[in-house]
Amino acid sequence: MRLEGTIFKAGEVPKRLFKIVFGTVRETRRKTYHDLTNGDFVALFEYLLQIPVEEDIVALEETELVEVSWEDEYLNILGKVYDLREIISQTSVDVERIVLDDFQFEETNFDEYLDQVEALLTLSAGELPDDKDDAVKLIESLEEDRLITKVNLVKKFVEKFPNEEIGAKMLIETAAKVYIVLGDKYISKALLKKVLFLFPDSPSYCLEAVKTLESIYKEEGNIMWRKYGKIAKLLEAKLRGDN
Amino acid sequence: METIEVSAGEEIFKAGEVGKYIYVIKSGKVKISVGLYDFFITAQEPVAFGLEVLLDKPYTETCRAVEETKLIKCEKQEFLDMYAKTEVGKNSLVEFVRRTARALGWI
After folding, report:
1. Measured in Å, how far apart are chain B's first and last C-alpha atoms?
2. Residue of A47, B34, B54, B78 with fewest CB within 10 Å of its CB?
3. Which pLDDT belongs to residue A92?
4. Cβ contact, residue pair A49, B97, below 8 Å
5. pLDDT at A212 over 80
6. Structural domains in chain A?
7. What distance, in Å, lies between the first and last C-alpha atoms of chain A?
8. Cβ pair B105:A230 closer than 8 A
9. Digit-coded pLDDT (tens) for A53-68
10. Which residues of chain A neighbour B101 with C-beta distances below 8 Å?
11. C-alpha span between A164 and A232 (Å, rounded)
């Protein structure tokens, strides 16, 4: 059959299994969408597990579907599920040998982007005081309308006072504010990853940073949330052990 | 095809290994680990594991007997001829899918 639009509605338990002959079908699970094409099965998991689909499953363009049976398609179905298993191995963390590479930073030069933002806005925050407490006071005094300035001062603070744990706290708080107020995931993620780079010996701050990264990735539908989720569990276990 | 006995704690196969056999549980209990997730199967509803062999691919799960366990060990063609289109075949596929969905955080 040829169709365009909704194939299964949210909440519906698929009673028939369809294979795509041509076209594109979009499935969404846990806010992550997957586009299916020729040879893929529609709502395969929901059909086999007999559970409701989370969100409408829709044909994005004119699509031809053919009804098939699990018996005839046994090996093809298995092959599709096997491919998904590869995602699991790609996002698994080796508990015994966790290294920074596991965080899979897109890039390590986070400052470049932050510097560019600062230059674009031509906001001058002035110099950061040499006294740590004065520097903290200055940063904390900045309101939400000077958030980017705050970002840059926090960045300068952790460079100037690398051993001060309050730097980790400010990075996390500022990242959260940037995310909430400006909705800028890139800056937020860069600040949170700085916590992991600069304060690897502070597991409680790392945990907070990792949990926030998990939420951000989850919200943007990026599978990386699973990796951060697992790292968070490991850090939680480590913290329990330390206590 | 043969029935084998594995003792408690014995590893049946490990993720990453290239295997030749699919196993159908006859009695006992098996722990299946996918990534960081553990699942248990018993003979109450007979299922097979090691389905990756049907695709000539390495195992993606690590399976270990939790207690003394009897398993039917079969090769690819034997499984396809004997089980694939039966309830055992369907349950095995469904459970493979369920473990995948759980490990992906979908259910």
Report:
1. 35
2. B78
3. 56
4. yes
5. yes
6. 2-90 (2.60.120.10), 95-242 (1.25.40)
7. 61
8. no
9. 999 999 999 999 999 9
10. 45, 49
11. 23
* pLDDT for B37: 81
Whether the CB of B36 is below 8 Å from some CB of chain A: the reply is yes
Task: Specify the higher pLDDT residue, A93 or A132.
Answer: A132
Whether residues A71 and B98 touch (CB distance < 8 A) is answered with no
The residue of chain A with its CA nearest to that of B98 is A49
A90-108 core/surface letters (b: 16 or more CB in 10 A; e: else): ebbbeeeeeeeebbeeeee
CATH class name, domain B2-104 = mainly beta
pLDDT band at A219 (very low <50, low <70, confident <90, very high): confident
Centroid of chain to Cα A77: 28
pLDDT (0 to 100) of residue B50: 97
Helical segments of chain A, H only: 44-49, 74-90, 110-121, 132-141, 147-160, 166-177, 185-198, 203-219, 224-242
Measured CA angle at A209 (ends A193, A189), to 5 deg: 40
Query: Domain spans of chain B?
Result: 2-104
pLDDT at B105: 73
**What count of CB pairs under 8 Å joins A to B?**
71
* pLDDT band, residue A42 (cuts 50/70/90): very high
Q: Give yes or no for B101 touching A (CB within 8 A).
A: yes
